[in-house]
Structure formats: C-alpha cells, structure tokens
Amino acid sequence: MTIDLKTLTISKVREMFAKGTLTSVELVQAYLDQINLKDKDINAFREVFGDALEQAKAADDLRKSNSTEVNSMSLLGIPFAIKDNMVIEGKRAGASSKILENYISAYDATVISKLKKAGAIFIGRLNMDEFAMGGSTENSAYGVVKNPNDLSRVAGGSSGGSAASVAVNEALVSLGSDTGGSIRQPSSYCGVVGLKPTYGRVSRHGLMAMGSSLDVIGPIAKTVEEVEEIFNVISGQDRYDATTLSDENVKNAIEKSSNINLEKLRVGIVPELMNMGGINPDVLKNLNDGVEKLRSAGVEIKEVSLPHIKYSLAVYYVLMPAEVSSNMARFDSIKYGGKVEGKDLLGDYLNTRGELLGKEVRRRIILGTYVLSSGYHDAYYNKANIVRDLIAEDFKKAYEQVDVILTPTAPSPAFKIGQNTSDPIQMYLEDIFTVTANLIGIPAITIPSGYIEIDEASDGVSDGSLGEKIKLPLGVQFMAPLCREDVLFAIGKKFTTMIKG
Amino acid sequence: MIITIEEIQKLASLSRLKLTDEETEQYAKDLTGILKYVDQIQEVTEGADTTSTTGKAPVYFPHRNVMRDDIADQALNPLPQKLVEAAPKHQDGLVEVKKILG
To answer: If DSSP codes are grouped into helix, strand and coil, which group holds residue A37?
Structure first.
C-alpha cells in the first residue's frame, strides 16, 4: 500500500491502526523505504536500527492481543527517531563524535523509557553537531545534514538530523536537544515545529550533557498537536535528574502567571531586538506579516522592552563554554569511548582528547577553561551570571504586560554549507533569538511562518540553472513564562491556522 | 584583549588537549575574536545585588539544592557490569588504568 507520509500525524496513524487499515510494520517499512530513497542526499540518520521492523511487529502483536496494558499505551507502534546524544539500552550512541564511535548504551534515557512505556518504537539515531556544539551540523564527525529544501544549504543544528528527517518524511516525529536553540533553529530552517520545554520539565537522565544549566530535551514534528502530545509523555519529575521540577514546582510557577487567558492571549514584540541590525530583511518582513495577521485576527499586540536582551548572546558564549569545559572532562579515555594511547596516563588524556574531539568542541573547551580561570572568573563567568539575572528580571517585567513574546526563530533562512565555517562569531550569531530562553529557563516554540523565494543566480552562487527559484522555510518563535507550554501550544495552533488560511 | 599562542598552550595543557601548532594559532585568533564580542557584558554596571551575587534562588530556576536519601537504587543493579564493559580497557570486572603514582 502507499502511505501519504507528507500529511501523516500521530493521531492519523493511531486512527488507522485502530481501524486496521495500517500496521506498525507497514508504517515503519514506509519510513525505511523513504530513508533508503532520500538519506544518501540528506544524511540525517547516523544509523537505522536493525530491529526497527521487529519492534514494529511486537507492537502490532501487542495491539492484536487485546491485552489491557494496550489501553495505557497512547503511542503504541508509533515510530520515533532520536538524536544521537540520547541513550537507548543496547544501542550505539555517539553524539556524532569520533570519541564515542563504539559506545553501546548501558541503560535507557528517561525520555526513552517513558516513550517505551507509552508503546513507542525507535527506528534510528540522528546526525547532529558533535556533542550538540554547533548550529549547522557541519561539526558532525560524519558529515553535514543537508537541507531538504536545497541540498547546498545546511539543515541547521545542532539537531539537524532531527529536523531534516521529519521535514523529508524519513521520520514521523523525533526528539532533539536544545542548549541555545538546537531544536528551534533547525526546525525553522527545515519548516517543522520544534519545542524547547521549560528547563527541568523533561528529564536529562541519559542525555549527554553539554551546558547543564541550559540543556533540555524536546520534540520535533510537523504539527503543534504532535509536539504537545510528545511533551506530555516525556515531561515530569525524575529521581535520576535532580534538576527536574516537582508537580508542586510546576503548580507554583503556573500560579505566578495565572492571569493568562488562553482564549485572549496578549502577544509582545520587542522593537529593540528587531532594530539591532544583522537580520535578513525577508525575515523581518515575514515576522511583520505574521504580526499583522495576528492583529487582524483580533490578537492584542504590544511592544515590550527587554533592555538587557542584547547581551544574551555574549552571556551565553561565556556560560555555555564554561559548562562545556567542565562536562567534557568526563571524556578521559578511561571510563568509556575511544582511546589513543600515550606513553603515560597524561599522554592518554592528551592524545585521546586532542585527536578524537572535533575542532569546535576543543575550541569551546579552551574558551570555557579561559573564562573560568583565576583572574578572569570575575570578569567573565560571574559577570555573565549577573547579566543573566538582569535578563530574567526584564522578562519578568515584560510578562506583566504580555502573555507570550514573539521573535523570528533565526536571523536568516538556512545558509549555504561552508558559508559560516571560517568565522565562529558569524556562526554564533545565528543563535541570537534563541539563546535567551535557555538562559532564563522559559519554554519556547518555533512555528513555520511561510517561505521565501530565493533566486539562486542572485544569491551569488549559481549552478548554471539560471532563473531557478528555491523556496526556503522561515519560522517564528514564541516564548512563554516558566511552565506555560500550554500558552505556546494555544498560540502555535492559532498562528498555524492563520498562516495556512 | 589579545590571546597569545602561549596562553592557548597553557589552556590546552590545563584542559588536557594536544594541539598542533596550526590549531594553536587558529584558536588564539578565534578566542581573541570571541572575547572581543563577549566583552560587551563589561558595559553592564548594574545588578551587583542580583540573585547571582546574593545567593538567593535565581528567578529562572524555581528550585535549588535538591536532595535525595542516600539509598542504593536496586533498579540500577544490573548496571555496574555493563558500565565496566563500556571502558576501553577492562579486566576481571575492573577498569584498567595506567600507573598514576611514580
């Protein structure tokens, strides 16, 4: 049978499963076929699991068995693809790094065990920037993930495989991780929906740590509804991750924004962010079009001031490398991963880390070591923490006037492969709109907001096909107060309807 | 602030990374550029009494210092052997390490 993967959603699959018009085996086979067809070009998958069809068969059998446990398995037989930095027992996991080339996971990440409990199955692991450090997957040790809309462009990163696989229908849904925009930016570049939940709402047990005060796991899918459903399954307090929020923490946080009316959301825009320069004019126009559409749909739009947000990226590029330098110390050639022998223990460390960690990872370790070293600790690390608090205070004030804040997700559409590799600052600037949510822990979502047409010839790089136009997706980002993912789902659904209408 | 080759060599040694001469030179340039960008946070003069310096829970984290009882978790019981097997070098259920003291 042919399955229209393009319009398939979790709820449609569930309906077809229930009616008996589709089996999980057929569905997984359809994705495997699509991967065979497309992934030579896209490079989204690091590995397709050899037992994907077996897992699907087991799910089909369980459904047929009419066992009562099936009733509580909302995702029975639903295939997921997982970013290569989350562990699944018995499977390889490598964070797209040479240093973990032969690593086999000894246990399930909490998000994986929660998905398994709900009946989900796993078809493979997805390419990414090495240890999630990057915004284009050009830092993967296994090649860049290409943008399905134009193979000469990046899919974004670091969760490039997670976004591209969903966009090109190699996967129904996926998980990514977001430290400074790593779910939202690639989702925007590929034209799909990506959620960065509130810090602490989703357990990181079994996620390879990058920036521990910033990292969060989240879902990527074609629709807001699916992202919402997956979030509801994977969130919750976890005894294996002390940073997860208790039900009481969540309740208290929601009480602080209890005046929000989901039917009548007030949307904030930030002129000082839009006017700071460096934003592609098409991106600005797309945002303004979105604002006008919201306004004509009766949504109240208010300008808010966030005076310290202009420092977000600088704060992020102090704190994140500091945390990276500490987290990456665990790769010591002793406990797990690869080893390059030296003449003594120190030689093992130097050789292994020098040869098996990629260029960007080492750059961030060195930068982090610098900002934490005595003499610079006050000027950089402490100062950045002070500014981080000021940014959080700005948002607290802004949320007294509005319920959700709207920005572009990225300052440009997907860029050309190689365009930013020689200039780290230019690459880092792609995170300008996304890092703030990580710094202050708030949830944020990217929603597709249309396309821009680019004439390849006028873009400076012509492949001889003059006059050929390519369409690149754009996305907008909504940021809500702590633990108000519900606000993001409400505005996300409304915005999607408006864009499609 | 200009980061010198010598500083990169020291940082690389502190962070246990062997670098080639070419990489050292490149990182000196990169770090100089990145620090020039992040130096803009020095403009900020307010905020000395914010939560980071006063020790109060920051507004962005609703919780801090989460403790649990010090009890061995039986659910993790099968793990130790698997974890040892993940080590690049192991013998008789123990992780193998090169000699540390003289």
So the answer is: helix
